[in-house]
Backbone:
């Protein structure tokens, strides 16, 4: 089955700096990689995703890059703002006929004003 | 367009009682997934359902836990004879019928506390 590793577990940046969170996955057949943002007391919110036929996707201040050869993908947040503070989770699909997602353990991002 | 709805948002049960968690998927979505989140942990898959069918329950504990998604009404996650270790946040996600089912949208969760 799929195994997803996420680093770092905590990340603290100054407002305006960039933040990068990295994930690796084990199943080379995986073809979809979402990122979720979870604020305290709320459910995970899908913020961006990438499919394996592209190497990079951008949406305003956030971007995701995918390296299929190395089996890793990264979330990049530029010009960070205090409201970006949250826990971010990466995920990958579990193969074998089920549509379940396997999640990383999360990165707690703190943006200091 | 309302998102995924879950209720109750908070549930307190004594050991041995039953917990019933409800999930209404987004409009137009017919696939429902339940995940459990322990404190400081990621989300762990429990069960995947379509209307009147359990597709994958490989993440469900073998005893005390059950799930359903009837033809009418919300999906229900039921935990019988709760124990302290069941305390967690339980999230429901849904994906569209005929769409890309890995694209899952989550509800606000039910935080279960067992005393």
Residues:
């Amino acid at each position: 089955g799929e195994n997803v590793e996420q680093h770092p577990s905590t990340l603290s940046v100054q407002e305006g700096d960039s933040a990068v969170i990295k994930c690796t996955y084990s199943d080379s057949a995986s073809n979809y990689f979402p990122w979720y943002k979870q604020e305290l007391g709320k459910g995970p919110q899908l913020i961006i995703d990438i499919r394996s036929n592209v190497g990079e996707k951008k949406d305003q201040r956030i971007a995701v890059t995918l390296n299929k050869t190395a089996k890793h993908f990264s979330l990049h947040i530029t010009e960070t703002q205090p409201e970006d503070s949250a826990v971010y989770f990466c995920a990958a699909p579990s193969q074998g006929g089920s549509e379940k997602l396997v999640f990383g353990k999360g990165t707690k991002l703190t943006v200091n004003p | 367009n309302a998102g995924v709805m879950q209720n109750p948002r908070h549930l307190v049960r004594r050991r041995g009682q039953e917990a019933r968690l409800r999930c209404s998927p987004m409009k137009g979505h017919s696939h429902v997934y339940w995940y459990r989140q322990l404190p400081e942990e990621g989300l762990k898959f429990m069960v995947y359902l379509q209307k009147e069918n359990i597709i994958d329950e490989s993440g469900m504990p073998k005893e005390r836990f059950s799930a359903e998604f009837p033809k009418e009404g919300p999906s229900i996650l039921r935990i019988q004879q709760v124990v302290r270790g069941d305390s967690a946040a339980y999230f429901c996600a849904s994906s569209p019928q005929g769409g890309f089912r890995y694209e899952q949208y989550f509800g606000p969760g039910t935080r279960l506390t067992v005393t």
Notes: The two ends of chain A are 41 Å apart (CA to CA).
